[in-house]
Amino acid sequence: MDDTQLAVRNQVIELISACWQTQVAGVGVELGIFDLLDAGKTDSASIAAACGAAQGPVRRLLRALCSLGLAEQKGTDSFALTPQGALLRQEGEGSLAALARTWAGSRFTAWSKLGESVRTGERIPGHFLSASPDPALGIAASKAQADRTRLAAAEIARSYDFSGVDRVLDVGGGHGTVLAAILKAHANLEGAVFELPHHEPQARAMLDAEGASRGGFIGGSFFEKVADGYDCLILKSILHDWPDEECRTILRACAAAMPPGGRLLVVEQILPEIADTDPELHSAWRTDLTMLLSTGGLERTEAEFVALFADSGLVLHEISANRSEFFVIEARLA
Amino acid sequence: MNDEATRTLRNEMLEMISACWSTQIAGVACRFRIPDLLAAGPRSSADIAAAIGAPADAAHRLLRAMCALDLARQCDADHFELTERGSLLRSDVPGTLSGLAQSWIGRQWTSWALLEQGIRTGKPTVGGFETVAADPEAAVVINQAQADRSRLPAAEIARTYDFSRFTRLLDVGGGYGTVLSTVLRAYPQLKGAVLDLAYHEDRARAALAAEGVADRADFIGGSFFESVPSGFDCYLMKSIIHDWADAESQVILRNTAAAAGKGTIVLIVDQVLPEIADADPANHSAFRTDITMLLGTGGRERTEAEFAALFKSSGLTLQRIIPNNSEFRVIEATVD
């Protein structure tokens, strides 16, 4: 077998078996291994004792973490945290711990149904967790979403020109990660999170913790009526949760609440019209199928956003990019 | 760390955390035979959708994701074709990875979903090998996937290890004889046999005939836990020892040593872990398989030192390890 053939074969085997990475990262978080390494526990016996597991298997998991670059093996039984692994500690700037648990848990279960979902075109019931009637599930999903959103929110706050804006409403804003980032970066702005009422305690706690206590919370549903009195509405990762019909309902409710000259910032990933292998776009293609499976929603191309706006009394004004995978798609009243 | 480095690190982590998507894309594509449907050239997603019985929109979205993973290419708004990588997922090419891809959305996915339980208990999560032995239908699927996955490594073994000094080779636990037939084709002087459980005989003989070595290759029904036949001057076992914990491995190796006799060469073909784990992507396969074994069979991957110790306790001596271009190594031992 020549080297090229071998390399291609190995790439495809890696791709086929890639789910191991999701599990090794997620279970590392679940067992608290990254926090234990950070706290100075270095050998498999003390890590195993602290997480209540047997030493042999824990040592094998630690080696797998090293293979993925999430830890480093210093000696026969001595392990240390790497910068990658540090992002999987429970706390800390930009922690991806909750996201890792979600992918190894409920998302892993949802993705196991991909074949079924492709065959029927239907979502798998019970996997749209942030809209779950069970507050505990909804809150856990919102926490994972907040972790993932944190850095993107900072990018949006940094790169979008908020001059001329007075009052921001983060529509479907969950725990207020995006609002907090914007309020922190722009001291002149006022704002509020608009979200289902059961999220209020977590949202208020998050705004306080982020030093954005001036942000308010308004309980409500964007399928009924969006609060008015705000000249800048934000919809981050909302439209992709829904098919076109529901999106039009949401967009019309936003348009009805917007004052003349008001702006609507739709923050989403954007699919190219023709698929390619750009790794920067993996996230968008992956999320498209996560939506197919879990919410019945979809990722969209620019043309598809333009069409949704046109149906909802809005018009595309400008699309701005930043260093995250999310674009700010600005619409105005038509 | 600067902003760009932080961003790169975070994106790498997001890819790793959500890596399971590519397992599903590849596996579902194979389950629906999409690579076969694209084998003859570009087709529209509506055409593919009709062939697999799915709505056009859902099929289109699956095909786009295959493009993102370089398994397919989007030619225009609605047509897709297979890439070099994707063609390895056709079910009819030598060394096809279609069976492997389907096992990763089936049995492998189920066992990896229980990783936390596996690490906490140290026990297989899906019932171990006994359940396979008790379920010949599952065993057929596993053996076929294993045979396909072994094809290219088998060619590497035949290319890099010198079998010219042997006359009779036994492929211990050889399944459908992929390794044996590959070596026999490369060495016309050699005869050999597969030793495996009796219910594999028909399929194994058919595979040996299809490979054109039926006149030189026999099938012997039996379990290596009971006895191994003598009368061979080289004993080979690929992906066998890693299926078992040390105690069972010692039984297999002692039975082999007893049959082979003093000085005879025993070749273990397995992956070899480095003594100290590192982040070399070339070792991903070995570290991944180690946990797959923990979850699936109760076996393990081993380092060179662990192989040496295992041989010593089983009446064998490690001679050398011969690398090749695949992830497998030929670990050569002699009977004491």
Write the layout of secondary structure elements.
The complex is a heterodimer of chains A (334) and B (336).
Chain A: H1 3-16, H2 19-30, H3 33-38, H4 44-51, H5 55-67, E1 71-75, E2 78-81, H6 83-86, H7 97-104, H8 106-111, H9 114-120, H10 135-159, E3 167-171, H11 177-185, E4 190-195, H12 200-209, E5 216-219, E6 232-236, H13 244-257, E7 263-268, E8 270-271, H14 282-294, E9 300-301, H15 302-310, E10 314-320, E11 327-333
Parallel strand pairs in A: 3-4, 3-6, 4-5, 6-7, 8-9
Antiparallel strand pairs in A: 1-2, 7-11, 10-11
Helix pairs in contact in A: 2-7, 4-5, 7-10, 10-11
Chain B: H1 3-17, H2 20-31, H3 34-37, E1 43-44, H4 45-52, H5 56-68, E2 72-76, E3 79-82, H6 84-87, H7 98-104, H8 107-113, H9 115-121, H10 128-133, H11 136-160, E4 168-172, H12 178-186, E5 191-196, H13 201-210, E6 217-221, E7 234-238, H14 246-260, E8 265-270, E9 272-273, H15 284-296, E10 302-303, H16 304-312, E11 316-322, E12 329-335
Parallel strand pairs in B: 4-5, 4-7, 5-6, 7-8, 9-10
Antiparallel strand pairs in B: 1-3, 2-3, 8-12, 11-12
Question: How would you briefly describe this protein structure?
Answer:
With 334 residues, chain A is of the alpha/beta class. Chain A is built from 15 helices and eleven strands.
Provide structural commentary.
The complex is a heterodimer of chains A (334) and B (336). Helix content of chain A is 47%, strand content 16%. By secondary structure, chain A is an alpha/beta fold. Chain A has two domains: 87 residues, Arc Repressor Mutant, subunit A, CATH 1.10.10; 188 residues, Rossmann fold (3-Layer(aba) Sandwich). In chain A, the strands form three sheets. Chain A has a seven-stranded mixed beta sheet with strand order 5-4-3-6-7-11-10, with helices on both faces. Chain A has a two-stranded antiparallel sheet with strand order 1-2. A two-stranded parallel sheet of chain A has the order 8-9. In chain A, helix 14 links the parallel strand 8 and strand 9. The longest helix of chain A is centred in the middle third of the chain and has 25 residues. Chain B has 336 residues and is α/β, with parallel strands linked by helices. Chain B has two domains: 89 residues, Arc Repressor Mutant, subunit A; 171 residues, Vaccinia Virus protein VP39 (Rossmann fold, 3-Layer(aba) Sandwich). Chain B contains 16 helices and twelve strands. In chain B, the strands form three sheets. In chain B, strands 6-5-4-7-8-12-11 form a seven-stranded mixed beta sheet, sandwiched between helices. Chain B has a three-stranded antiparallel beta sheet with strand order 1-3-2. Chain B is globular. The interface between A and B is large, with 92 and 93 residues.
